[in-house]
Amino acid sequence: MALKVGDKMPLFTATDSNGQLFDVSNFAGKALVIYFYPKDDTPGCTIQACTFRDQYEDFKALGAEVIGISSDDETSHKKFASRYKLPFILLSDGSKKLRRLFGVPNDLLGLIPGRVTYVIDKEGIIRLVFNSMSSKIHIDKALQILKKI
């Protein structure tokens, strides 16, 4: 079942690009932008990550942390983050448990993991669910919502 606006964000743990355990409960009281993307180093995903990177300070100024999630492993994430100087957290979801937890669908043909962005407020309530394979729009949508909350 897909999470929707107004739902409480589920608590979860995952491994980050440094092989460390990430626990989302450590970010309680902080706004989050969690975006699921298909794969490191693919054209659309690279554009999306670099756009988040280029506007990362805007997110920080609004009190939000950005977290990217794909099924790629820690080694892939580490290379991807290093190559493009990504300042935000990347989490590995090889088992797809986080995709299932959030209810992230595949693309229309069911072949490619979906691209969905969630904005979560300081109380842990989901304020935006944006599902689109168009990579750059996610950043603008997330910033618009953060400015309102």
From TrEMBL:
Its EC number is 1.11.1.24. It is an enzyme of class 1 (oxidoreductase). One of its GO terms (molecular function) is thioredoxin-dependent peroxiredoxin activity. Gene3D superfamilies: Glutaredoxin. The keyword Cytoplasm does not apply. Pfam families: AhpC-TSA. It catalyses: a hydroperoxide + [thioredoxin]-dithiol = an alcohol + [thioredoxin]-disulfide + H2O. Keywords: Antioxidant, Disulfide bond, Oxidoreductase, Peroxidase, Redox-active center. CDD domains: PRX_BCP (cd03017). Residues 3-149 form the Thioredoxin domain. Belongs to the peroxiredoxin family. BCP/PrxQ subfamily. Monomer. This is thioredoxin-dependent peroxiredoxin.
